Known about the structure:
Distance between the termini of chain B: 16 Å
Number of domains of chain A: 5
CATH topology of the largest domain in chain A: Heat Shock Protein 90
Strand content of chain B: 15-25%
Radius of gyration of chain B: 12 Å
Distance between the termini of chain A: 61 Å
Radius of gyration of chain A: 33 Å
Strand content of chain A: 15-25%
Largest sheet of chain A: 6 strands, mixed
Structural class of chain B: alpha/beta
Largest sheet of chain B: 5 strands, parallel
Oligomer: heterodimer
Shape of chain A: elongated
Number of strands of chain B: 5
Shape of chain B: globular
Helix content of chain B: 40-55%
Order of helices and strands of chain B: EHEHEHEHEH
Strand order of the largest sheet of chain B: 2-1-3-4-5
Structural class of chain A: alpha+beta
Largest interface: A-B, 26 and 27 residues
Strand order of the largest sheet of chain A: 14-18-19-17-16-15
CATH architecture of the largest domain in chain A: 2-Layer Sandwich
Amino acid sequence: xxxxxxxxxxxxxxxxxxKIFNSALLKFEKDITDLxxxxxxxxxxxxxxxxxxxxxxxxxxxxxxxxxxxxxxxxNGSIKVDAEITGLLFKGVDIIEKFLENIxxxxxxxxxxxxxxxxxxxxYTKTGLKISAKVIKEEQKKEEIPDLKIEEIILNEAFKRxxxxxxxxxxxxxxxxxxxxxVFMVNRNLGEKGEIIKSSPVAKDLEEGKFGNSFSVAYIxxxxxxxxxxxxxxxxxxxxxxVKQIKKGLDEKRKIExxxxxxxxxxxxxxxxxxxxxxxxxxxxVLLNLVGELVIAKIRLEQISKDxxxxxLKETANEFDRIINELQAEVxxxxxxxxxxxxxxxxxxxxxxxxxEGKEVETEIIGGDIEIDRTVLEEINEPLLHLVRNSVAHGIxxxxxxxxxxxxxxxIIRLSAKRERNSVIIEISDDGKGxxxxxxxxxxxxMKILSEEKIKNITDEEIVNIIALPGFSTMDTVDKIAxxxxxxxxxKTKIESLGGIFKIENYPGEGVKFIMKLPLTLAIxxxxxxxxxxxxxxxxxxxxxxxxxxxxxxIKLIQGKRVxxxxxxxxxxxxxxxxxxxxxxxxEVVQLVIVEVRDKKIALEVDEVIGQxxxxxxxxxEFLKYAKGFSGVTILGDGRISLIxxxxxxxxxxxxL
Amino acid sequence: xxxxxxxxxxxxxxxxxxxxxxxxxxxxxxxASNGKEAVEKYxxxxxxxxxxxxxxxxxxxxxxxxxIIKIDPDAKIIMxxxxxxxxxxxxxxxxxxxxxxxxxxxxxxxxxxxxxxxQES
Lengths: 657, 121
């Protein structure tokens, strides 16, 4: 049987369920007296089990099954929950994740340590079972089928009309996949011969398949018990049907239930499903690429219609422009994912690390629903992870230390995302001890990054940026958490390579804030086209602040360097031609683009500023991908190729930063 | 001996069902690769059982169920559904299909569905 064609969707849906598991577990850990999250976990594990079984992954099925057992015991209160139990559950999530990894990567259904964990679960469920068996026995004595509390008025009415009232408990096959469809069929079969007046769990949960393996309904009909059983056994995957009749005498003793809200009408409520399909992400990549090509063609058309002064062509070009802009916006939108896709994992990671370090940490997420291009999101996952780990390991203090400083026991790590025009700003901050400026200075001296004289004059704001220099670490010993020699510099390089901006704000004693400004999408950006040495270059607008036209006399020389004074600020002037190792032409009037690079303003001298335009980014390809100074290439309206400038690496290349 | 009509747009799935049904001692009288063909073949052969795929070109399985049920309200149709198509399965059952099985097929499940469907009569 071609099971592989289902693998992709299996993995995707399994991941969704792992996410549910993780976040519910974190909730549960915070307050173990509230068992609501356990139900969510149980459902997720149950779904995972069902899917794994269908796919024929026996080991994963076995594991999820044992996990389900322990969860069931937690749910019914026969296992007392402590830190060890939650720890075991956390391990369980990890094992499932590993199973999935092995299945998706190597197509093998096995994971190290899963049997060990099953045995640990069994220790609990065994002792747990004893207790729960007792509980169940006692319950069974009282009543085998849950009491659905039927209103007296309804009962009396039924008896008056000589109808029978039953509580029917239906148990589905354990690996039943479409439970809600089975519920629907039960409704259909029973509905033909009577009326279902109530159910447990409530109708909405049944319709969504949110229940274990069994559910009960209160049923009014002329049929006898045997006929009901027969009616239900016609449906496949129904394992067991238990029917209990409610007799007249007994019911008079019953309490009158006044709430009518749980009564379900026999009319099948058609579930409204949102119309959506899952699409292979590669297809979206192709689609976006095509839109990129279309944008280039559009720019060419615009150029031609401008040159030719042909009215009808101009109109068509405008129409074309509008449609493509819309198309581009839509396709970009489709590729967007909420940042929660990666944020979701961080509370768990922060928690695990904090436990290891003997610290207490709470992770807050703000703006998790802000959307960003999927590629950007994938790329920033690792850097963000690194920063979160950094905050826990180096920022947040131990509980005792925090208390002595008058802070709360628990450290807070805040992840936030917000949209700002064509960028998304992501901030990671903590309320820990902040960056030790003295230590950084000392280390910078030791590593000979800065001279003694320079260190004297450096501001605290500037010193903070040193921690983002390659190889810099204030940790004396390399620890496995964050000080592995790869540090903030890697994060910074990554963010910048995405065309983003990375900043650090330090509040000594109060915490650190890492700020990342990222483009919404990597494929199509706004760029400023500039001309230098007969070539046209594209400069991403995200870096640019303003454009100036100055008489060359306004450029002063300070210590042999060309500068301008703009609103009392001294700004260094660099000639783009010179940066590109070409000859600079002396002119009377110069055009300057003020760009912001690493918090510094720089004036870039160009021959001519052509204007702002959207460009579709194409990669430089295998051979040129390490070329410094350029982040890509684009095709202009007239068919010419234009290099996209990466100002930061260009300045670095010339030792000017 | 009971006989059946298999409706699915892929030969792969039809073959798989054929082997599952044959093992159960069911004779395959006809095959159809879309809903339109299914209705035609149903009229021609009046099979005891129909296995019906849902997503098919031209006329889909649900439409075919509706048309077959119009001809014979007692027709025994079992839907073949993929994961995640609950809503469509419910629609098919509302239209008169008797039961469903899920791809990838587990023979035991298919046989169970057939047994219980025939029980109904």
